[in-house]
Structure formats: structure tokens, C-alpha cells
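Dig into what follows:

_____
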Amino acid sequence: MNITIICDVLGKANNGTSVAAYNLINHLKAQGHNVTVVCCDADKEGESGYKIVPTLKFGPIVNAALARNEVVPAKADPVILEEAIKDADVVHLLMPFPLSWKAVKICEKYGVPMTSSFHVQAENFTCHIGLMKSSFATKEVYKYFYRKVYSHCAYTHYPTEFIKQDFESNIKKSVPSKVISNGVSESFFERAPEEAIDKQKAKHKDKFTIVVVGRYSAEKAQQVLIKAVAKSKYKDRIHLILAGEGPKKRRYKHLAKKNGVDCEMRFFDHDELKEVLNAADLYVHTAYVELESIACLEAIVTGLVPIICNSKRSAARFFAQDDRCLYHKWDSEDLKNKIEYFMDNPEELKACKRKYKKQANVSRLGDCMNKMEEMLVEAAGTRAKEA
């Protein structure tokens, strides 16, 4: 098939949405489909299968906010979009933003079926304009996304049942959809080489290692973990790893230094992240806004016990198998107590590791990409039925 993928934001594979996009693109190409990707990434200029549009300018205030969060949105170029869409069998929209809005109109002009993925919670948008905690803003953003994109699609892909229910309860409508996990890469299901694991442990001088994975951004709330470790009676025994990158890096470094927390902050590639997770003692998931949290699932399949922020805006809370693995949102004291419980009870920690490893109900990446491909094929078939 000829498949066009519209990426309002693509960038580097250093966040869940971009990783999901690249996973889908690579899978479809590997299956022999002709894939065209429309994005604004200048580094893709001249690369086969990519069509590059300009970047979008919202004005100095909004663009400054987006730049701080390392978001570069695409501007709709109707000529480039029309060229990418007119001969497509199906068009897949990654985000409900201006590039996709224009793509919707061109698809309807040529009768090309559309699918979409739900990768953006309202709070991922409202956090840039200071309205992340407003339920009214959440509803209005979702209604707008529905009108501009999701109401036009043959299918919408939801990564979890949680976000499907959340979105549809806010807009008071249901949309044709498929619930498909973004999937965990096969490699995380296999243990890293023991030599590599031992090397990681040696780096930290056999300290108790706690890992959190995610962008350094407002909704990920890593500062709660730094504060929890700072309060702990075991502070000097803990090595904290914040795996990621993002606009709050300087703030978190300052907070850790100020409180004397042994904290490592940097981006890890796929292979080294696997080694870090295999070598760690505990995983903490601090995000209070989360569609699915593949990062948390990756930690679980390596055998780590997670302590998860108990937020109603996060799907990750459903991964916790009991209350020992949930802490109250924003409550660094409660998180500290949960960490100290497992440090005080190492046998309980070992038992929990076995329990999580055995009972983890995690979708593998290959299976999920096959389901995404099937969704696109089904949607493409609707064009023939309508003809």
C-alpha cells in the first residue's frame, strides 16, 4: 500500500510519541509498504520517503514556551501535503495539530481514508500555557481535537483503554477505534549480558540504585523523587538515575546538588538503558499525566519493582499490584516511606520482583505493530467500499 504518515512533531526518538512514530514507520517499511512521512525536521531533507514542510510560528511567547519544551511544530504547506496525500491508500495522523488539520481537508478532497493515533493528552498541550490543572481547559481541548481530527477518521488508535474512556467521556461521544498498546521492544524481555550489568553496578559503588525514565518536563514531576531521596535516612546509600533529557534539566540538577542527592542525569540509548534497568534495584514512575507509559512497562519486564504516582490522569497507576507500589501524587514523604520500606525489607523486594516479572501482562512491540498495520489495511478498504 501507499501509506502517508503526518507528523506535526517528530524530532529525535527521545520521547514516547516520537519512538512510537519511528516504530510504526520502520515496521511498515519492513513489511514492504511505500511509506511517505510529512514532517518539519530539516535533518530529514533529501532522505528517501520524507517530505519536509516549514516550521510553524505562533508568535514569540508561544514559540518560546514550545522551545523550552523542545517542541518544533510543523506548518501546513498545502502543495507538499497534496503531493504526499493524493495517491495514498490511507493517511495516518500522529497528532491533532495544524499539519494534520490541513491533511484532513486534503484527504477529504481526494477521498483518502484517514486513521489517527491518540498520543496527546490535553495536559501535554495545556502545560505549555499554564492551564494543566484546569478540567474546563481539558474538556475544551479534547472537543477541539475531536472536531479537527478524530471525527474525520475511519479509526482512532488508543494506546490504552484508560485514554479511550478519558477522551470519550470528555467529548461525550464515541469514535470508531482500536485499542493497541505502543508495545515494548523484544530486547527488554531478555536480560542484558552479566558483564554489562556488573559494569553498571560498579559505576555506582554498589549503592542502592533507583531509576526513573522520562523527559524532564512538568507532567513527569521528577522533582518529587529527588525530594523523597533527600528526606530519606538512606540518602547516602542511594544512587538516583534520571534517564532522559528536557527543559527542566538545570532545575533538577540544582535541586539534587542543593540537597546532596547522588543523582545521574542524562539520555541513555536503547542498549544502555536496558543495562541500567537490569542493574537497578527499584524503579519509580513519577509522571502524573500518562497515556500508557512504555518506560514503566520496560522496567517491569526487566524484573524491576515499580513505585508509581497514584494519579487519576495516569494509566501507569494500573500497573501497580498493591498499595506498596503506589504513592500519593506530589507527596515526597509518602514516596520516601515506600522507598524505605523496600530498602528495610530486601526479601520483600525480591519477592515482589519475582511477582512482577511473572505476572506482567505486557504487549510486545512486534505484535502491536502488526495490529497497527491491520488497522491501516482495514481503513484503506473503506475507500473501495465507498466507491
